[in-house]
Every structure is written in structure tokens, then in C-alpha cells.
Task: inverse folding
């Protein structure tokens, strides 16, 4: 009685056949590349044959250490469609993490961008990489490297046939894999089944998620090693949309030029990328007229960013997600009754992490295990579940014990939910500061401090305190010329306008840089480690 | 590693909690009813308790013989959410068919509209209905009937609690059931698993299907006993959209009034309904300004209808589906490169059955089992597969042998596919006329003949012929005053402008009415039976 298995193959088939002329464009180390879904499909099948000839079988894990390019995108359908598992690896991770991840995932083949080959070479270490039978450099030549056996992509797929009959896979077949960012500890492996990727792809297309259509020109700036560029390559293919890949380390100029030249309508990335673009636009003329929407996630989208884009006629779509969720969980779309609300109110809503996407469920649980009311004030940990939310980690029994409760994933994010159902992240569970039995939101304090013109970045951590058990301390980065003592007074005054006195950080420490994770998030773990034992100085 | 099961409960949960104030409005025999998702959820859980107390268990089949009302909609979530199976029954079927269906499906409880209770009474027959333990009339009183035991809906759910913890179901749990229309033979049972309904719901929301959002006000005119009103009640709930149910036998005036008063933006039904509305509008002022789109399916949407709606500022969304497909398979949305095409070209595209919905696959196979090229000319039978397409019939092993090939459903529809991927249905497999080894499309001839102002309806069937093996004959319905012989000459001339001579029907027979099925489709089976042995006269 049941229907056919939920797999990725129909998305490729549809794009190739119904939208054969739609383009895939990429900025690569060889210059701009441009081809159609029609040709894309042929290259996907060539690669499938090459993988099979290289001995890849159903269930094998294939690693990629690559930027957002056409060739990387080819692995996105080739690998899962033959029943293997696409494991995207973050090249910005420390060598030790990469070694851990590769040896954990037992990758059989690893694809690597020429610009990242040196990084791989440096991370390479025989034991951790012992499972790897073939390295493939994403180009038409092989740079001088110590890793082996190594070949280049074009030679790898060169003679292969464009015919390949993809097997009818089970929807439970693992199709993808990605490690969490390691913000709170060692990265944890998350596997994606065909069904999870299928569900996420369908869900992202619905209007209350991202509403992707064939009229969109989609450019994922978020790296393809961050949870499959938030699933965009799959969604765009399913919708038959034109795709633009910004290639190795795109800078604001590259991004601006691609938006202009390819008439991008929809793009996606972390806040830093967009702050960079807007800064670049202060001195450079950029035509954003084609751009309709920017999806921002990974960290909170600052309200100022939402407002600035609005002035440029671009809608910010703020989304929240996790590696564990394939990744999209909430999107801050306006409910229909907010469509005519004053802009200010709309910005406030859009600065929240948003409404749960159709198909998922959540609950917010306080320390005693009770669900908190939806009043925009009460905090609790966010639990989620749904078809594209994992129910376990890869070979991490302890984490499976801790981070799941039945079918629920405990996100580790502390949130409020308002009367309209909009979720707002106020902290990470480990970052919450508990002072005299009351919670203080480190993220709220950070956002408030960063709103000051003389503050470049700020992070707030909790330090042990005899009487209050914990007290907040702010770490602040400023431009060179600022008078720190004066600034501290200004910040205190500013905070007192909005927050009770006991929320005021006990100390303001001026530092050169906030330590960051490989995905560019504030690493409070590192901050706390840096200052362990020096609490008195803070 | 996998995600949570795909079931309907999260859709209800989300509507109730994220869109608690959105309305459900119904025209009922008790007058207009109006409540919110918040109240709706409570009544769904009351009904769940009532069903449980009535002895309903996981896997039981619950029948409904009901119009589109609030109470019928309550069964849509109550029954599947407790693990039982919602079996909607077409009250317009002949008594014998209803008996067959009820005894085939072994319904434990049957819900019936007051206005349909007499129909049920007449179809009632002890043997076929022996599984039924409870009849429930959709109201607050019980009419005088011979069926028993019988109660009324409000008494049935009256004292029940609004608390009910829905079980965590498997996505393979059967959740729905519907019989095919019986156009080509006895109706066949199709079961829908939770996963099929979940997939169909997600798919219908995507822009390239129906693009349903919370800003929509959705009125399914297509009856809820026709493949769950094409799944709209589920899609609208998942999107948190306002819903309007037009109640028992709505006439054009009811439909017009509901669109005006409830500011309906999106509605759906078979062509006849809309022809009726437009006819009504010739003599009556109707304000369609809220209406954005009309989904038309079940039979081909005539081009003239698409044009007339366009003049009224309403977009026709032509869709094709089957009971076997939950039901939606293709939607004639314009590709982005057609958005600026001349209207005439757009209408031609919209009159086709459309593009395959993301997530599904199809192929078109000729008599020799080869796939036909996508050139808009070559015919073949349409095969489809996907997560919301069944892979077997309920207890019909012979049909399972005939109508499926591996994971593919053979639709029985004969189609062309054009270069852009738009599918056009040219015939039913059994209705195709093969003359001198060449195919003639009965549906094309019918549409051409019906385009004449003096023709009310026309059907074309094939009759045996010694030399050509088969030849077309047209059955034509006209208004009283028409001169048939003159009309025949005009029709022949008209057809010759577009079609080769050998496509011309050998005979034009003027009859009072084309026999129809319970879903209002031309019953060529009946036509052929009517004229069997009288071929010489045709
Ligand atoms: N829009 C957003 N606003 C605020 N925080 C966000 C947003 N999107 C994502 N996040 C944060 O990112 C987290 C998910 O990130 P990711 O899966 O990349 O790994 P991580 O949680 O940073 O690392 P690890 O789980 O290894 O500690 C979320 O749990 C949330 O804390
Ligand atoms: N937009 C449309 N244009 C033309 N035909 C359509 C359209 N939508 C549906 N149909 C026809 O309706 C059929 C599906 O109808 P349904 O499932 O209600 O039962 P049926 O096929 O009429 O009856 P049975 O299968 O019992 O003979 C399709 O196979 C197709 O022939
Ligand atoms: Mg995490
Ligand atoms: Mg049929």
C-alpha cells in the first residue's frame, strides 16, 4: 500500500528533464564556469561510474574538503544516488579535528579543492587517514602533495560513460554526514538518511520555510561544508532554480559581482558575510536590484542588519538551525496578520529566530522538566523532533544518552516563545549565567553591548562568584583609539536603561579578539578556558 | 540516525499552537458555523476520546458519508491521529457500489450527514454493513432511520475530555482510504499511510504545486469524499490557513456568497462547478476581488474557462491527479520563462495537465514498452511513482498485477509531453481509438466539438470497423432548437480545419444526455454498453 521510497534521485531527474536549460554557474580557481542541468546530470553520472570503478559501494563514506563549486555540487547527487554517503568536512577546523573526523567517519575517497590541498596535506596523518583509498583534487591537475594515491577530478571522471542506472535505494540508506561545529565540545557526527534529506528539501521549498521556486536564482554563500550549505543545493535542484556557486573564499567584492552579473534573487549565509558586504558597499557601488531575499542563520541576525537590508529593498529571512536538523528548524517569516504592521514591529519579529517549519514539533522545557508558557519571557531549553531531525549521533553513545529524550532532540539552546509562536534564542545552555538563582542571558547582554558604536565585538561569560554563585563579565573588542574607561561607563549607563542593575557585568575586559570556532561563532569555551583561574582579574 | 516518523499530528499541533486564532468556517444544515483552530483541536481530541470509548482501535476503518463541513473536518485529524483509518465514501455512488465499498473496507463506525442519511438508509443492507458497530449522524439530533445503533455527533462527543495524548504512530500506519471513481470499472480501494498523507501535504504547499501559505483563505469545493478534497484540509492546516467549508450540495449562489463573505483567496473543484459559477455570474453581481486562484482538476479544465477566469482577475491552476496519488500529480504552473509570454500562449500551457510535482517521477511508455520522446506529439501511457503514489490496491490482486509495474503505477492515462515537460492527457487507455493502426484522441475530438456554440456536451467513442478495425463516433447533446443535420455539417467543416480527414467521426448521434459517473465524469463505459450491437446505427 505504501508509496515509493523518499530519495534524492527524483529531484535530479526532474531538474535535468523539466529544467534542462537552467544554469549552474560557478566561480572557480579556473575562472567562471557555466553549464546546464542537462550537462550537470551527465557529469553526475560520469562521477557515479568513476566512484563505482574506484570500488565505492553502498554505505561507503566519501569525504569532501571543498568550497562551493560546480564540482563539489556534482558530488552532492552522485554520492547519495549510488547509495554512498556524502561527508562534507570543514577545512577551517584545526588539524586535530580533521584527523578525528576522517578517522571517525572512515572515508574511502576524499575530494579536495586545490586551494585546500595544502591544508589537507598538513592535516594528513597516516593512522587517521588509513581508510582513504583515493584522493581527488577538484581540478584538471594535481598540485605537489604528499598525500596519495591522488588524481585530479577531470582525469577521475574523464573516460566514464554518461549512462548510469541509479539503484532503487531504501529511504533509510545513509546519504549524508556532517559534524557539528564544535562550539560546545568536540564535533559530533550526524548522519542524514535519504529520507531526512528528502524531507528537508521538500520542507525548505514551502512558503513558510524558504519558498524556493524555479524563478529564483539561488546563491549559497554559506559553505557547502556547513550542513550541505543549509540544504540549498538540494532545494534549488528540486525547484529547478538556477544556482550560483561563489567558489573559494569569496570576498565581498566577489559576492557583489556575482549578485549583479548572475541576477541572484536569493542568497544565504552567516551574519558576518552580510556585514562584510554592507561594509564593502559603503565605498563601492553595488546593484542589488535583482536580490529579493537574504537568508541569514548560523548565529543571530542583528536587527541593524535586517534594517539596512530593508533600506536596500532586500528582505532578510532569519532562520535557525542545527547540524542535527539538516539544518533548518525555524524561519522568521511574518505571519499574514503582520504583513501590514509598522516596519519597526516587523524588524523585531524578524530578529527572532522564527516560527517552527511545518512538519516539525517543539517544546520548551524548564529545569524541572515542565513546559514553559508562550509569553515571550519564560526561558527553557528547546526540544525539537521531526522527519529531518536526527535521533542519535554517530558512534557517540554518551552524547546519545545526554542529548536526546525519546524522539526529542535537546537542542542545548535556551529560548523564549512569544504569544504568536515566534521562538527567540536567548542563550546556549552552557552559556547561561545563573546569578543568585536567576538567569541572565549572555546573548542579550552581548547584543546590547555590540549596539554601541565604539564596540566591534563583545562576548559575555559567567564567572564563579562566592555569594551569587555566578556573575557576568564582558569581553569587549574596540577600535584602537577608544578610551576604555570612558566606554565602560557609557556601556553601563546604556545597559541600565534596558536591564535591571543585577544584570550589569561585574567587569568589562578589553581584548584584541574574541576567539572563534571554525564556523565563525564566538567560542565561549575558549574564552572561559583562557580566563580559568584568573577570575579575580576579570 | 533516522528522523522522527512522518505523521499528521505535527500539522494539527502547529495550527493549534502557532495559529490558534485562525478560523474554520462552515456552511451547515444548522446555519453558518465559525470557530478557531484552538477550539478545533479541542473538538478533535473530544472525538478521539469518543472513538476510543466506542471501541475503535489502531487499524480500524472509520467511514464517512459526508459533505464538506466542520464536523467532517474534525474526523480528518481525529481518526488518523489515534491510528485508525479515515475512509471517505462517495454518497453519489449507486447503492450497490456503496454496499461493495463498506463491506470491502469493513467499517467499524460510519459518520453520515443528515442530508445523506436517507441515502445511507436506502443503501443499507445487513450483510454488507455487518462490520458497522455505530452510526453517527453529523448534527445534534437523529432523524428517523432504520439503521442502528445510531447516535448524533454532539451526543457522541458531548461528555468527552478535551485531553488526549495521541500515540507516536509508525509512518507506515494506514491513515486514510478512498475508492477510485469507478469510471473504468468497479471502484478500487486505495489506502493512504501516514507517510503518504504527510508527503502529499508537504508537496502541495510547495510553490511549484499549490503554494499554500497562512495568508490564504482556502475553500475546498471539491467534496471531502473525493480523495480528501484533494488533500486541501491537510495542506491548509499544515500552513495555518483559514478554511471555509461549503457544506451540503452548495449551489453557485452559495459558492459566490462564501467567496465574498469569507474573502476566499484559493478554492478548488471540478470544471462543472466553475462553469456553474460563471453562468450564475451572467445574471448576478458577484465580487471575486479576494479570489486569487482556482484549482481545477478531476477532468480537463477547458481553455475557455481559464480565459474567462483570467478576465475576472483570477488565475486558474489546472491540476491532474488520481485517487491512487493522494491525489495530486501534476500542476500547470507557468515556468519562470513563461511569465512574460503572451496570454494566449500562457492559456495553452495552463490548459495542459501540467508539470510533475517535485518529489515524483514519471515516464511515458508506448505499446512496445519504449519511452516516447518529449515532443508534444508522441502518445503513450503515463507511469508515475513517488512517496504519495500507492504501489497496490486494497485486496485486488488482479488489479495489482495489471496496474503496477515494479514501483510504477500505470495510470491508464494516455498523454503527450512537450519539450518543456508539460504533460497533456489525450485519452484514457480504454478510450483511445485505433483506426488503421493509427491513434485518434477521443478527448481532443470532444474538446473540439464542445467548442461549438450549439453543443452542450459531446463524447466520442470508438466502434468496431471491418476495414479500419475501429472508427470514432460522436455523441452530441444540444439545446432543443438546433437543426442537427446542419450542425453535423458545421462540425465536420470545423474539425477539418484542425484535424486530418481520417480523424472525422463516422457518425454524429444526437442524444439527451451523456451518462456520467458518481464523480461527474463522462462514463464511456456506459456509452459503449448502451450502443453495443447497434454499431450500424451509429
Ligand atoms: N539564527 C540563529 N540565531 C542564533 N543562534 C543560531 C542561529 N542559527 C544557529 N544558531 C546556533 O547554532 C547552533 C547550531 O550550530 P551547529 O550545528 O553548526 O554546531 P554548534 O552547536 O555550534 O556546535 P556543537 O554542537 O558542536 O557545540 C544552534 O544550536 C544555535 O545555538
Ligand atoms: N486535470 C485533468 N484533466 C484530465 N483528466 C483528469 C484530470 N484530473 C484527473 N483526470 C482523470 O481522472 C482520473 C483519476 O480519477 P479518479 O481517481 O477519481 O478515478 P477514475 O480513474 O475516474 O475511476 P477508476 O479508476 O475507478 O476507473 C485520471 O486518471 C484522469 O483520467
Ligand atoms: Mg550544537
Ligand atoms: Mg483511475
Result:
Amino acid at each position: 500500500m505504501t508509496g515509493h521510497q523518499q530519495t534524492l534521485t527524483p529531484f535530479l531527474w526532474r531538474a535535468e528533464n523539466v529544467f534542462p536549460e537552467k544554469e549552474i554557474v560557478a566561480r572557480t580557481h579556473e575562472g567562471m564556469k557555466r553549464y546546464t542541468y542537462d550537462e550537470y546530470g551527465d557529469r553526475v553520472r560520469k562521477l557515479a561510474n568513476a566512484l563505482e570503478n574506484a570500488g565505492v559501494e553502498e554505505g561507503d563514506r566519501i569525504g569532501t574538503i571543498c568550497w562551493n563549486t560546480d564540482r563539489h555540487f556534482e558530488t552532492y547527487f552522485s554520492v547519495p544516488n549510488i547509495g554512498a554517503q556524502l561527508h562534507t568536512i570543514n577545512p577551517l577546523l584545526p588539524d586535530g579535528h580533521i584527523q578525528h573526523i576522517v578517522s571517525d567517519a572512515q572515508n574511502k575517497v576524499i575530494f579536495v579543492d586545490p586551494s585546500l590541498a595544502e591544508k589537507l596535506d598538513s592535516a594528513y596523518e597516516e593512522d587517521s587517514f588509513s581508510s582513504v583509498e583515493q584522493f581527488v583534487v577538484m581540478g584538471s591537475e594535481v598540485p605537489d602533495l604528499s598525500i596519495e594515491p591522488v588524481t585530479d577530478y577531470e582525469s577521475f571522471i574523464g573516460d566514464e560513460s554518461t549512462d548510469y542506472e541509479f539503484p532503487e535505494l531504501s529511504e533509510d540508506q545513509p546519504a549524508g554526514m556532517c559534524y557539528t561545529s564544535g562550539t560546545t565540545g568536540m564535533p559530533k557526527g550526524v548522519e542524514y538518511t535519504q529520507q531526512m534529506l528528502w524531507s528537508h528539501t521538500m520542507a525548505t521549498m514551502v512558503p513558510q520555510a524558504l519558498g524556493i521556486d524555479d524563478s529564483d536564482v539561488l546563491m549559497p554563500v554559506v559553505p557547502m561544508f556547513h550542513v550541505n550549505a543549509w540544504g540549498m543545493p538540494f532545494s534549488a535542484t528540486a525547484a529547478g532554480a538556477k544556482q550560483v556557486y561563489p567558489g573559494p573564499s569569496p570576498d565581498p567584492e566577489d559576492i557583489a559581482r556575482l549578485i549583479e552579473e548572475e541576477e541572484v534573487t536569493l542568497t544565504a549565509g552567516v551574519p558576518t558575510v552580510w556585514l562584510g558586504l554592507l561594509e564593502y558597499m559603503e565605498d563601492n557601488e553595488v546593484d542589488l536590484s535583482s536580490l529579493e531575499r537574504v537568508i541569514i542563520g548560523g548565529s543571530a541576525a542583528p536587527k541593524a542588519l535586517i534594517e539596512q537590508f530593508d533600506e536596500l529593498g532586500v528582505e532578510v529571512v532569519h532562520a535557525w538551525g542545527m547540524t542535527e536538523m539538516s539544518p533548518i528548524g525555524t524561519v522568521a517569516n511574518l505571519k499574514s496578520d503582520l504583513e501590514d504592521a509598522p516596519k519597526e514591529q516587523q524588524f523585531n519579529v524578524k530578529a527572532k529566530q522564527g516560527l517552527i517549519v511545518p512538519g516539525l514539533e517543539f517544546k520548551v522545557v524548564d529545569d524541572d522538566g515542565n513546559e514553559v508558557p508562550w509569553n515571550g519571557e519564560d526561558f527553557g531549553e528547546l526540544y525539537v523532533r521531526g522527519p529531518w531531525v536526527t535521533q542519535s549521533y554517530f558512534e557517540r553513545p554518551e552524547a546519545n544518552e545526554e542529548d536526546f529524550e525519546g524522539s526529542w532532540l535537546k537542542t542545548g539552546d535556551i529560548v523564549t516563545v512569544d504569544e504568536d509562536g515566534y521562538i527567540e534564542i536567548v542563550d546556549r545552555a552552557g552559556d547561561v549565567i545563573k546569578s543568585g538563582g536567576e538567569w541572565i542571558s549572555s546573548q542579550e547582554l552581548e547584543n546590547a553591548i555590540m549596539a554601541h558604536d565604539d564596540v566591534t565585538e563583545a562576548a559575555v561569560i559567567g564567572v564563579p562568584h562566592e555569594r551569587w554563585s555566578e556573575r557576568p563579565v564582558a569581553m569587549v573588542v574596540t577600535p584602537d583609539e577608544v578610551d576604555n574607561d570612558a566606554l565602560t561607563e557609557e556601556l553601563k549607563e546604556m545597559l541600565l536603561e534596558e536591564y535591571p542593575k543585577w544584570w550589569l557585568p561585574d567587569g568589562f575586559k578589553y581584548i584584541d579578539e574574541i576567539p572563534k570556532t571554525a564556523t565563525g561563532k564566538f567560542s565561549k569555551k575558549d574564552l572561559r578556558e583562557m580566563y580559568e583561574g584568573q577570575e579575580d582579574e576579570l
Summary: Residues 37-53 of chain B form the longest helix (17 residues). The two ends of chain B are 66 Å apart (CA to CA).
